[in-house]
Fold each of these.
Amino acid sequence: MSNLSNISSTLTLQGFDLPPESVIPALVLATMGYIIIIFCNLLLLITIILNKNLHEPMYLLLLNLPINDMLGSTALFPHLIKELLWDTRTIQFSTCVTQAFFIHVYATGAVFILTAMAYDRYVAICRPMRYNSIMNNSHLMKIISLVWLTNIIMIAVLFILLLRLPRCRSLLTHTYCDNPSLLQLVCVNTAVNNIYGLITVAVCQVITVGLILFTYLQILIACFKNKGSDSRNKAIQTCTTHLIVFIIFECLGLFTIISYRLTDTSPYLRKFISMVAMILPPTLNPIIYGLRTKEIRTKFLTLFKQRVKP
């Protein structure tokens, strides 16, 4: 009980254990990575907002992706840069919980948003005559509200269950704060937290992966039935690219979750994969879902020319 009452509010992160000569390159890469992610996602965000022709269900759903990516990156990078710049590995417990909360909101939100976008493409390609009646403004707002409210409530419950438990440790065996690493600071039974976490992950995976596989399978079937080779090839290329991005994100996220429960997993591998899961999707998403989309690319170039020319 004395250990529980005297535990410090300051936590220590294990960090990367970088040699001194690697700190400056790592700091430069982290800073440049954060700038690139924010710039590319802001570019996509502003392009969609400023062009009324892009105020369609597909692009309004896409609008949520850069918001979510910037949320996750801002939860991670500023503290990471501070750690490298000042050579400090300490973090306040309240700050750690806040960081972990938004990182989990980002990870879950990314999967939910991609699922909503897959549903929109399914209706557009497989039910084109009913697209406008199905994806009306009211239905669209319900989808967006469901994505964010479900995400926030689910993660909030996860951290309410965490905060009720007393801590007796202050060393986080990870490079940033998340729920599994915070649970390792607890010295009482965490069965309720583990069960809730596993159930939410399982339910989310079944629903999102199931919906995405179903929608893209239906899209591919519809594309092969379509006699127009140009539209078919475009749809197949789009679906394939989106599926690859989703599968990469899923594999990285699931490995991070499972690695906490496998004691023989290399901590360096877990750190590397978890960092890639936080950096790669926010970097690729503006390119895959933004610049590779002809309508957005055209509107961006038009907007750029209007701002550059006197």
Note: Confidence is low (pLDDT under 50) at residues 1-6.
Amino acid sequence: MVAFNGLFTKKTLFGLFFGQILSLFITSTGFSLSELARRGINAPTSQSLANYVLLAIVYGGILISRRNGMKAKWYYYLLLGLVDVEANYLVVKAYQYTSLTSVMLLDCWSIPCVILLTWFFLKTSYRFKKIMGVVICVAGIVLVIFSDVHASDHSQSGSNPVKGDLLVIAGATLYAVCNVSEEFFTKTADQVELLAMLGLFGAIFSGIQISVFEREELKSIHWSSGAVLQYAGFAAAMFLFYSGVPVLLKISGSTMLNLSLLTSDMWSVLIRILVYLEKVDWIYFVAFAAVAVGLVVYSLFDKEGDESRGDNVELAISKHFDEEADVAGRLS
């Protein structure tokens, strides 16, 4: 079934819509983080722990109830859990040293990293119109950056901008590795298995990191009822975001995921306008429109078979995982 005179498939339209749902979840986590920071709570790893625990309990329970062997080896997920924890930690930590403008700009580094990694490892092909869609999306974010340069943010460069910028670049690179790895496991193994093991190892590594780096910080925090509610809201939004990511990765891939998340800053601006009645620069609306156009251009004529070379690779690896699981089942 093809809609809009063949420009979009139903799968593509769902990918565009669902990508914005995930972007709104990221927006809500940003508001929760801001409120927690305002209350003096600055413990990046501790704030992510509840999400990993929820993933391990919910999807781990489903995985156990199935009584089936795992498709992929556990140590692959161990490495993924470590990379995911450190990516979250580095980007949140960077806010202490550099400006919001720098974080927004440098976080876009994950997009070319994702394109390179999917092309090299997953054999994903990118036609010219897809590259043009990416360029338009990034151009929209650059408009926001130029707008912020004229706002108060440019004078607040942070205590150590160079250190903060390096943290963002490192975190964005690790995010790209995580997204491409999750796309790989989503398409070749199992979504429930991925989320369960990511939650398990993410919780383990978070617990270790908290005991080493954030133990004293947690002792000094006063957990009021408002702070607890904000923490719970952050954990719930992160859980829903992580739960939805494999769905979009399976449908549209990790590049589309990263492009969709570019609109999270725009959604936060709209919420500030509608809820807090704040006035913002008109350029934000132009930027939002540019990102939206870029997403549409990236998705144009996104028919089945466009990336058949990557599909063949994924099919072969999925078959290999199935054979490994059968062998392990017979041995047990």
Note: The CA atoms of residues 87 and 171 lie 4 Å apart.
Amino acid sequence: MAENMTTTLNSTSFTTPPSPLNTTVITSNATVKPFSVFDGCDLQVEGILFDLTVQIFNVIVGLPANILVIAILIHNRKEPSTSDIFLGCLAFMDAYFGTMVPFSFLNLYYWHSKEVWSAIKFSYGVKDTSGPLFLSCICLDRFVAVLFPVAFSQLKDTKYRAGLSVLVLCLTFAYASAKTVGGLPNFEKVFTGEVLATFTWMIVCNLSILWALKKSRGAGKDEMHPMKKKAFKMVLFILCIIICNYLPPVVLFPFEDYYPPDAFRCYVQPVGFAFINISSSIQPLIYLSRLEQVPFLPDACIQRCRTCCKAEKNKIPPAQNPPA
């Protein structure tokens, strides 16, 4: 009796056709989109590689420059300027973004890890939001200082800028988290609206500052005050950098609906973001160029450079030597 039951069970187990289960599994697998580190641009990788190639400059130049800016701000913390907290946050975010570039290359060609790709997408979200928003905060600080000096003197307390920085960080991490999760409808238009608003604000602020500095010469004065002239040149230089970094995405991204979806995602977006991403190197270099003396460099090295420059400047060519 037991043998007959065992035979029946074995016969039943062998005669059960597994094909419907396998067919269902194959069908479900066919509907699942396979993971790709190129985010759907496996056959159109030129734009992504262009962006990553540009970012190599951020690793070689931008990362050390941002670390140096952070060190200088910490060194000068006893005599800070009003924008130092914004500059420090911006330099920290740019340095973090620069450290993720090697992981991007490694994940594209070796790891192919979904978790690493999520971390890279988070860093892209941080860069997308922190750069424009903190630059807007710096422009706001300068705008109030030049055009409304009385109100600026009443708002010099650090708590106002710290609170604004916390708000910007919250917006940054919220945007970066949403970008990492993905799948949100029309999510690209959030960044398009953000970059349009911040770009317009920065242009208006800097043009207003330039107009106010130009107007402040006073009646009958042809020359601007040296400090105001220096500020005028710096704001003008920053305005040019803002236009170079943010004008391409401002011009390209609003016309997303006019591009084929694959062309926009694989070509237009990476090229537009490349102009924004290179700002991680340009911004700290602008700050360092404003300093009369860079800390942490030996005084002997600085003095030697000054001596060499002075000797080269005062050097008389042999043809101009007076006859003996």
Note: The longest helix spans residues 114-147.
Amino acid sequence: MDTARRTVRGSPALLLLLLGTVRIDGYRPVVIVHGIFDGPKQFKTLSQFITEMHPGTEVSVIDLYDNLHSLRSLWTQVQDFRKALDAITLKAPDGVHLLCFSQGGLICRALLSLAPRHNVHAFVSLSSPLSGQYGDTDYLRWLFPSFIKNKVFRVCYSSVGQKVSVCDYWNDPHQRYRYLQSNTFLPMLNGERPHLLQKEWRENFLLIKKLVLIGGPDDGVITPWQSSHFGFYDIDENIVEMRNQEFYKSDRFGLKTLAARGDVSVCVRSGVKHVEWHSNRTVFTGCIERWLT
């Protein structure tokens, strides 16, 4: 017994291990979900950043709905991404980190809401339209060349439009009623459209330990860019910040609770274009790295 006591006193690291305050199994696995028109190949640089800074980390970029297939309805995609995530998390009893880019951030939002007893530790949302999208970007002109932003609702808020991923988060601030009635994805996730599973989804989402929101004013695609931080336009296209959104004030899906716990981190970076977020080392070191432990 005396020998054991001398060993512990002489080894602070061992003492910490005995107290359970140090991880002994390395870094948690990181699961990456890509954005629209993307696939695993676009995330080689980000994967390299992770393994360089945290050697031995298992990084998985889910290889589903790549490129044009990413236009499939989000509820369809979510079901298959959930199966892929479950297969990874089953092998990681200490949990995983979920790092999701652009449209992938919304897929991850849905995964975290639908999955009971999930073991996702940190959810890092990298330039995702979390409150929706409303803007005449190059992506929109490619998808709907005959429409400008204030006409797209005619397609998106229809049964046909709801089979296209972009329409699942198209949020026209001038067509609020149609958005709430016809969009079957984003209003349900954000608790703006009441449903029977809302309480359960909220409890599931709150299982995460950290929510990291990353975006910036020079993104050029996410419109408004504040949507990456749960901000959005009002009817006059003025920005309503996250804490003034009704879904935040009413804590519809747990965002206010997360913030009260001190578990929401907001990172703003200027000078980063949309397609650069996952290959920008400064973004990684300044906004992401610390959360992937």
Note: The chain has a mean pLDDT of 91.
